Amino acid sequence: MKGTVLDFSVQSNKGIITLDEKRYHFTGDQWKEQLHPKRGQHVDFEVDEQTGNAINIYFVVTPNTNQQQLTQATESAKEIFGKAVSSRKAYNQAVITCFKKYFDINGRAARPEYWYFQLCATSLLIITDRIDEMAFNIVLTVFIIPLITITVRRLHDINRSGWWVLVSAVPIIGSIVILYWAVSKGSPEENLYGPPPQ
């Protein structure tokens, strides 16, 4: 038989199941699940012919509940996967763009382009630093120019002259200033250095 838990008291270890306007009392030892029953739960149970009480009680998972949970899980997985794919594409595009514009200081660079390229360069530098000094020096040599040019284009995006990149030569304070500008939102409209980056 299938019914609904009307009430259950942990203190008295007793509860009531309702089915077709009839009430069936039960004790906690007849509940066959690990978690305590809760009001409103759908259950499958048998009736003791002698006492009329509910026995052998199990929680019933309705198909609708399963389907809703599966649908929600699927949608969440799709959303997470979509964001991961989108981020991966943006990362790849940023790295490709920065290498295409290796010596190019013209135009503007949006925050994602700047930070994805910084992530790529920093990761490789950290990894090669742990492996071999020669490998580290090679990576540093390859990345130093595009790191400067992307920073200049990032400064252009906030409508600042690329010459401000020289402030990074000032120990500590220079890095903090560049960091602040790097996280700043770019000009939403066309500025002295061109239209907003796509």
UniProtKB/TrEMBL annotation:
InterPro entries per record: DUF805
Signal sequence range: none
Keywords in alphabetical order: Membrane, Transmembrane, Transmembrane helix
Transmembrane segments: 134-152, 164-183
One Pfam family linked to the record: DUF805
Protein name: DUF805 domain-containing protein
Taxonomic lineage: Bacteria, Pseudomonadati, Pseudomonadota, Gammaproteobacteria, Moraxellales
